[in-house]
Automatic annotation (TrEMBL):
<keyword id="KW-1133">Transmembrane helix</keyword>
<keyword id="KW-0472">Membrane</keyword>
<protein>
    <recommendedName>
        <fullName>Membrane protein YesL</fullName>
    </recommendedName>
</protein>
<feature type="transmembrane region" description="Helical">
    <location>
        <begin position="20"/>
        <end position="44"/>
    </location>
</feature>
<dbReference type="InterPro" id="IPR006938">
    <property type="entry name" value="DUF624"/>
</dbReference>
<feature type="transmembrane region" description="Helical">
    <location>
        <begin position="104"/>
        <end position="128"/>
    </location>
</feature>
<dbReference type="Pfam" id="PF04854">
    <property type="entry name" value="DUF624"/>
</dbReference>
<keyword id="KW-0812">Transmembrane</keyword>
<feature type="transmembrane region" description="Helical">
    <location>
        <begin position="174"/>
        <end position="191"/>
    </location>
</feature>
<feature type="transmembrane region" description="Helical">
    <location>
        <begin position="148"/>
        <end position="168"/>
    </location>
</feature>
<feature type="transmembrane region" description="Helical">
    <location>
        <begin position="75"/>
        <end position="98"/>
    </location>
</feature>
């Protein structure tokens, strides 16, 4: 019986890994177009909990339905996010190799600003699965801001994780193929998990 349970658990984990990699592959294909990048990321975030729980079949069908909805509502804000991210990356790269005291001031502004934007983005992804399908970007922004204010330390840790992964991916570009969509999605999924409440069993006497 125990062997059968272990086999079932292994098969379930393999199914989860397979579904997540399938979502990553579809994300890569859909995000080739600049306008589709963030709608694809939003759609992935809404179906990642189903891929992990294995409670709802027809994952791809739901992903494409979510993607169509996200494209209708958020393609323009998504393009704004892409443009802003590109400008921040260019600004940090430019000032990192510049000279003079202005460089220090510029980086002292740009780096914390990037961290704050990443924190808001991850907070938005964290609340996205539970948000109504018709939620506007303004509503999502307010909810993400509240989430960030309530859980600043976990969000800061998630930003560090994401930046560390980006640093690794810059040295090993193949990591982008495997995790460009999955790493932010799984980081935000972990961030959205409710904190475990301590019980009497956790207190040692």
């Amino acid at each position: 019986m125990q062997k059968a349970n272990r086999t079932s658990a292994v098969l379930t984990k393999l199914a989860v890994v397979g579904d997540l990699l399938m979502l990553q592959l579809v994300f890569l294909v859909l995000s080739i177009g600049i306008l589709t990048l963030f709608p694809a990321a939003f759609a992935m975030q809404r179906v990642v909990p189903d891929a992990i729980s294995q409670e709802r079949p027809k994952l791809l069908r739901r992903f494409f339905a979510e993607f169509r909805q996200m494209m209708k509502q958020h393609w323009l804000p998504g393009f704004g996010l892409w443009t802003g991210g590109l400008m921040l990356a260019f600004g940090i790269s430019f000032w990192a190799y510049a000279a003079g005291p202005v460089r220090i001031v510029a980086l002292a502004i740009l780096i914390p600003l990037t961290g704050m934007i990443l924190g808001l983005y991850l907070s938005g992804l964290a609340i996205l699965p539970e948000a109504p399908a018709t939620a506007t970007m303004k509503t999502l922004f307010k909810s993400a801001n509240l989430f960030l204010l309530r859980r600043p330390l976990p969000v800061a840790g998630s930003v560090v994780i994401l930046l560390t992964w980006f640093a690794l991916a810059s040295q090993v570009p193949t990591l982008l193929v495997v995790g460009s969509g999955l790493v932010p999605a799984l980081t935000a999924y972990w961030l959205s998990r409710p904190r475990r409440q301590k019980t009497s069993e956790d207190v040692s006497i």
